[in-house]
């Protein structure tokens, strides 16, 4: 850190802390150097270091743990389980700029399982759509969806359209964009796993990183299934919450 | 496999398959040898192998994936997110015999965070209770709970009592056992991580295995907090589900 005589020392130190965090030098959840070490690093007084840490704590950058030290706050995206929030809203709430890339789209004969889930005849063609959601420039979530053919074509068209506009969306947002059908109910299971090669490559996380796998089946009001989806969320960036009466 | 002349060959083969799965030689989700390989392994006809695989599939041991092969079913415990199921019910539904061990209990002055969550004065003593839940002989979930002192003492007493009877329970079941207070609401967050040393040791899983971390705060009807709990569930054994209207 180069000291700047026009700003109070502690403010410069807060900027330095923010930079370390933003650049990943101090990753989320990691312990930062002790007050004494920071005094020595910058040749400043303990009072200045304490003032900077307090300020960074108020800004939500750091968290002091009683008797353990000071840690970089692990700010995960906190997604509700009971009500749906769109991908755009979820990212915006965390102050991230949402965008989505269409990774792949193709038609394939359905296998027995997919046909059964989507209430189709085994072998009937289905439409696969793969999306990658970003918060700022960071890949956050992968969506692998399978639709009945006609719906899938419309969804992919809407996806390419929104992608062209630089919008952030998941497949759920595409129903409104197409205005074709509106899902009424969703069944979801939440599982955990460690990232395989494909996930590592797309979510830009380390091999062996923990991920959420959320499998969803969407249904229309009459009970007809419209989508079978597997979504992969970065475990270091996502948490899900629920509040309920017992 | 030693062939036994008193049982049909395919039945013996099903027993062999079950044994491979039970003993973990074929882990959940893994691909089993091809029909041809199994014919050669046991010197039996393709018809016999097919009959055995069909039988094992009907029993829910195996799952055939179109064009990919046959896999060991990954039967996870499927826990509802919307309503509460007791630990005992959850294990029993999967045909597992539930039991619980009290790992640890101690009194400690609260740190600022715990005191704030439990609505106590910083430093006021709190009661820690650690439980380990088993399905059959397999460790399934770890519960680290913190209670206000008086409640904690009662909960620990109930826990030791139920443990002595060989019962399966989580901290939630202890409220009824004590008959002291009854939680009315719970706030929960679901996170994923990989197992650290303590978790590895107690859940008997490999270092780096994915786990669910479920943080809960339980409240009484008036809004008073009664328990702060971190629960760790084996990622290879648990999944959570929710069905909801959109």
From N to C, what is the helix and strand string of chain A? HHHEEEHEHEEHHEHEEE
The oligomerization state is homodimer
Count of individual beta strands of chain A: 10
> Percentage of helical residues of chain A?
25-40%
- Strand order of the biggest β-sheet of chain A: 4-5-6-9-8-7
- What's the name of the CATH homologous superfamily of the largest domain in chain A? Chorismate lyase-like
Structure description:
2 copies of one chain form a homodimer. Chain A has 8 helices and 10 strands. By secondary structure, the first copy, chain A, is α+β, with helices and mostly antiparallel strands. Chains A and B meet through strand 7, strand 8 and strand 10 of A and strand 7, strand 8 and strand 10 of B. Strand 7 of chain A pairs antiparallel with strand 10 of chain B.
